[in-house]
Structure formats: structure tokens, C-alpha cells
Structure prediction request, 340 residues.
Amino acid sequence: MSSEEEYDEIKIVVDAGQAPLRIDRFLMDRLMKVSRSKIQTGISDGDILVNGASTRSNYKVRPLDEITVKVPKGRNEPSQVKPEEIDLDIIYEDDVLMVINKPAGMVVHPGIGNPSQTLVNAIAFHLENDDLPVMEGNTVDRPGLVHRIDKNTSGLLVIAKTESALSHLAKQFFDRTTGRKYLALVWGQPNEEEGTIDAPIGRDPRNRLIYKVVDEEDGKRAVTHFRVLEPMYYVSLIECRLETGRTHQIRVHMNHLGHPLFGDERYGGDRIVKGTVYQKYKQFVQNCFDIMPHHALHATSLAFTHPDTGERMQFEIDPPKPFLDVVEKWRKYLSTRKNN
Prediction:
């Protein structure tokens, strides 16, 4: 084996809600462009440790396991965040944190395929590149981030500006004492006016870009509480409250119920799921897609306890105009259908 100086170490702490999962499969989701066979080789060579000890490929990770992965120097060096002058919709800011209303279409942090024009690039410019804290397990591409929302999801995010605030906020998200509500427009009308979806989520083995509801041992526990705010037969406006915060959680859970988000290309919402096949209806739906060319999901409410003052803070923000316009079009369409 090569000398220690030729290697860097990546440390990964397993999430407290992680169900038992083979370590080689677990690491495939967390190491970019690394095949399962290479992970298995690394385990055999002793370059992957669990809690400081060697392991086997069939070892099933447990909550709070600390995994150490040795990689050749230079292979995993994160890029530095480049400050870029991009408009930010800042809802609140003080010395230790800021709350931002992220527009749909903006990626949160740099990554492969998105090295710039992200929310983090904009924050770096706004703060004149002051050093922001980085949460354990994140790279320096993700300073200040305690949580994230998808590129095409709009709405509220809290950013930590100090190590103390980051630690305090991260614990609130871990302990599930934050409050997060989303507005979503979904296809169809759920059978229940309100309910809870408690179903584990993991990557789809046939398509690594999407997630699905899986067996408990293959994914992480995910809990979404939903309430139908406005049923419109073809679509429904719903409120979702997150108990956990898994990747694509609302999108996956609603699709699992048979009600994918309107316009969601990854989960089948970018086609007609409910309604007639008449050309006039098809054109109406297409017009809606043109107005809002992405999935209809908005982080409308965020609550947390201020790290310094202990004050409970609550923020609300309306969905962007395209979202509201599409909802209004469906209201008018339903009204027209009822009157005919």
C-alpha cells in the first residue's frame, strides 16, 4: 500500500434514521463516480473502515457509524466557491443566520454539472466571501448549508453564518424540532382529506437519478404529513409537512400514492395523469406546463429556534407567480366545466 501522505480521508457519519443497508450499496449513493466493484476492492484493501476497524462488503451500516474512506490525493478535492453577483431574495438576516427565498431553477450548491450560478455562489458574493461554516460530512462547496431543497423547488432556506449557529440549527433538524411546510399541486384528488405517509425511501436501482419507496432495509425512514387544501378533481392543491427530510421526499411519496406533482418530469407528472384525452384539454394542460415548466412544489413555511436568542422564529412566503397562475387556471377550468 502507498504511504499515508499520498491519501486523503473522507469521513461519513451514517444518518440516525438509516435502516440496515450493505456498506457497498450505502457508499455508492455517497461517493461520486465510484463503482460498486471499486468500493468492494477498497474494503478488501483496508481503505474503507467502519468505526476505525476493517469491514466486509456485506456489512450492514448502522445509525451513527463513522465510515472512513481513503482516496488518492487530488481525487476528491472540492472546488472553491466562486463569489458571483446574483440577486438574492433575503427574507431575514442578522449576524448569525439568514433566511432566503430560493427561486425555482436555482441549484443550491456547486457540483458536477453545476459549478457556478448556484445559491452558494450568490451567498459568497453577498457576504463578500466571509468564511462560512461547513457542516460535518459536507465539502467546502456547501458552506452554511443546514438543509437543501431541489433545484426546481422554490421557497425558504436558512443559512448559518457561524459555527455555533450551524451546530445549533443542525441539531434542530436532527431532532425534528424545526417546522417545514410545503405547498404542492398534484395530479388527481387523494382519497383522504389528510393523512400521513410513513414509507422508507431509497434510490431506484434501475435509474440512479430518482428515488422510490423501498423495503425498510434498503432505505431511510421518511414521513410526510399531508392535507388537501383545495380539491379540483383533475388536480389538488395540498400542504405537506415534513417530519423527515429525505431527497425528493414529497415528490416520491405523492407519486407512491398515485398523485405525482404536476409538471414533475422525473416522477411522471409532466404528462396527463388525470382527465380526458380531448385536444382542447390537452392544450389547456400544455399551456399550464408552459407557464410553469417544472414541478409544482414550494417551501412556504419554515420555523426554528434562533441559535443565539432562543426566540422561536416563523417565516412564510407565498409561491411564485407561475405557481399561482397555474393554480388559478385550474380553478377557472373547473368552474367552466361545472357550469357546462
In short: The chain has three domains: 4-72, 90-175, 179-339. Confidence is low (pLDDT under 50) at residues 1-5, 73-79. The helical segments are 23-28, 36-44, 119-126, 163-175, 249-256, 279-291, 321-339.
